[in-house]
From TrEMBL:
The keyword Lipid biosynthesis belongs to this UniProt entry's keyword annotation: no
Protein known as: ABC transporter ATP-binding protein CydC
SUPFAM superfamilies associated with the record: ABC transporter transmembrane region, P-loop containing nucleoside triphosphate hydrolases
Pfam family, one: ABC_tran
Cellular-component GO terms for this entry: plasma membrane
Domain ABC transporter, chain residue ranges per copy: 337-562
Gene3D superfamilies: ABC transporter type 1, transmembrane domain (1.20.1560.10), P-loop containing nucleotide triphosphate hydrolases (3.40.50.300)
Bilayer topology annotation: Multi-pass membrane protein
Entry's Gene Ontology molecular function annotations: ABC-type transporter activity; ATP binding; ATP hydrolysis activity; ATPase-coupled lipid transmembrane transporter activity
Gene: cydC
Transmembrane annotation, as ranges: 62-79, 136-157, 163-183, 252-273, 285-307
Superkingdom of origin organism: Bacteria
Compartments, record wording: Cell membrane
Length: 563
């Protein structure tokens, strides 16, 4: 399916509203044409009747056409207003649908596939590109469809009075509606593609700069970064200037062609009048109608331009969304059952495109309720266990089960119900401590929040803050120290009270006393059936566990069991 067919499929649920919007746009344009057409006739007919003496004046019925003029004027205003309401609503709903659809496809790709993308680029795609895709209906399809219908109607109506005038109108509309916009779009295609590319890079760079501002300062690279962005912006400006010049040129040319067409129609109508095939009142009617007809092709150059942008934006969004997830969805979903034991048997796991196996011939059995320390050198494969459990990555050899079901049949959502993780690179959300706790457990009471904070050894700090639970922690918890942020992440998991808790370096950034207090409070607060798996380089923390498993050479080695 090509890009636009896929967009059409996404539009299906809002098709009816979109068609109503189109009908209203057509009615508004036809009413505009009718208004000028009839006004032209009315003015000229009234003048002719005025010159024709008292008999002609009495014979002339001014009321019916005047009612017609008022009718067209009212319909034009009403239809234009309703068109705006309906089409903008349809556009917003379409943008929402595109975003929801993209998110549905992106979620299974996290984090393995998404990690290959730059976050700024992704942000741009899912804000700006989806927005552009959403404009496809309002600013591309609607003007084209309305122009096609209305132009045909204008030419037919004009043809009823004068065929040569209709021919001139048709040629003028064709030139302004398709030939000129097409040539403009072709001439500006390179600049349009450049803008997309440059903007893409600039947004990715800007996001990286904002996120790593401190590091750029430390590295003394702030000046060169500023220059880099300024250069990118200058390139974008040059491309935009070229596009604006072409668009303005096309607009001027269209206006000239529109005016010349109206003059030519008037000349042809005058010729017909002299030949006796047209009444005098029809002359201004055809000329004014001709001028009004060109209104409907006015937005087409911009629509052609936007068509190119929409195509690029849609292709970029589809390209990301179409990537297969790193791990296929389970063919037969299963839910782990008690006891929630974890068992790896001869397991082999290699990250995509990695040369070496992260785990190979690995055997491990952790029973529900055990408190296990996973130790080993950096890069041995400890954190890989979390990636396997949550199906972020797949294993290629052996078997793995959790709660008596094959891991390949367990969804990450189901796993999250049983297992709580404080990863090494945990993420805190912008906002208050309360918000972060509520994200972990939406219906937690204040009492439960304070208890979780108490266990995580953070309650004292929060209590001392004037805003308490509503203390703002900033983006990524920037207003907290490293140790406080980690303890908040631990409090989140404690609040959820899952059957399994996996802590990756839980005491990093803590002094010895807080480290001891935290681990003791945590171990004593959890019920006996709760399993704790703690990945640590800290022998003191490992010593608090019942069992120590050493990860080395991609295998698990039993390193000791507490008496
Ligand atoms: N997303 C990934 N893609 C490719 N290779 C990866 C990925 N994550 C980890 N690895 C590799 O897998 C191996 C095991 O990494 P892992 O993060 O499990 O080590 P670790 O024992 O947790 O180390 P540390 O104690 O430093 O946290 C390493 O060689 C690492 O380079």
């Amino acid at each position: 399916m090509n890009t636009f067919s896929r967009l059409a499929v996404l539009m299906k649920p809002i098709q009816r509203e979109m068609l109503i919007g189109l009908a209203l746009a057509v009615v508004a344009s036809l009413a505009n044409f009718g208004l000028l057409f009839l006004s032209g006739w009315l003015l000229a007919a009234a003048a002719v009747a005025g010159l024709g003496g008292i008999v002609a004046q009495n014979a002339f019925n001014i009321f019916l056409p005047a009612v017609g003029v008022r009718f067209f004027a009212t319909v034009r205003i009403l239809a234009r207003y309703l068109e705006r309401v309906v089409t903008h609503d349809a556009t917003l709903r379409f943008i929402g649908r595109v975003r929801a659809w993209s998110f549905e496809r992106l979620a299974p790709q996290a984090p393995a596939v998404l990690a290959q993308q730059r976050s700024g680029d992704m942000l741009f795609r899912f804000v700006s590109d989806t927005d552009r895709m959403g404009q496809f209906y309002l600013q591309v399809m609607l003007p084209f469809a309305a122009a096609a219908i209305c132009c045909t109607a204008y030419v037919v109506i004009t043809g009823l009075f004068s065929l040569p005038a209709a021919l001139v109108l048709g040629v003028g509309l064709l030139l302004c509606g398709t030939i000129i916009p097409l040539i403009t779009a072709k001439l500006s295609a390179h600049a349009t593609a450049q803008i997309s590319l440059q903007q893409d890079m600039m947004h990715a760079d800007l996001t990286e700069i904002v996120q790593g501002m401190g590091e750029f300062m430390f590295l003394g690279a702030a000046g060169s970064v500023q220059k880099h962005i300024a250069d990118q912006q200058a390139n974008i400006r040059l491309c935009r200037q070229k596009i604006f010049l072409l668009e303005d040129g096309a607009r001027c040319l269209s206006t000239i062609i529109g005016t010349l067409s109206a003059v030519a129609m008037l000349a042809l109508a005058t010729h017909a009048y002299h030949a006796g095939t047209l009444s005098a009142a029809c002359l201004p009617m055809l000329a004014l109608g001709g001028l009004a007809a060109f209104d409907v092709v006015g937005p087409l150059p911009a629509a052609w331009q936007l068509l190119g942008h929409v195509r690029v934006a849609a292709r970029r969004v589809f390209a990301v969304c179409d990537q297969p997830p790193c791990v296929p969805a389970p063919a037969a979903k299963a839910s782990p059952v008690q006891p929630l034991d974890l068992c790896f048997c001869n397991l082999g796991m290699r990250y995509p495109e990695a040369k070496h196996w992260a785990l190979r011939h690995a055997n491990l059995l952790i029973r529900q309720g055990e408190r296990v320390a996973l130790v080993g050198p950096s890069g041995a494969g400890k954190s890989t266990l979390i990636n396997l459990l949550f199906r972020f990555y797949d294993y290629q050899e052996g078997t793995a089960s959790f709660g008596n079901v094959d891991l390949k049949n367990v969804d990450a959502d189901v796993m999250a119900h049983h297992v709580g993780v404080v990863a090494q690179d945990y993420h805190l959300f912008q906002g208050s401590i309360r918000r972060n706790l509520m994200i972990a457990c939406p219906n937690a009471t204040e009492e439960k929040m304070w208890r979780a904070l108490q266990i995580a050894q953070l309650a004292e700090f929060v209590r001392a803050e004037p805003a308490g639970l509503d203390t703002l922690i900033g983006e990524e918890g920037v207003r907290l120290s490293g140790g406080q942020a980690r303890r908040l992440a631990i409090a989140q998991v404690v609040l959820r009270a899952p059957a399994w808790i996996i802590l990756d370096e839980p005491t990093e950034g803590l002094d010895t006393q807080t480290e001891q207090e935290l681990m003791t409070a945590l171990l004593s607060a959890l019920p006996p059936q709760a399993t704790i798996m703690c990945m640590t380089h800290n022998p003191a923390v490992a010593g608090l566990m019942d069992r120590v498993v050493r990860v080395e050479d991609g295998r698990f080695h039993e390193a000791g069991r507490a008496p």
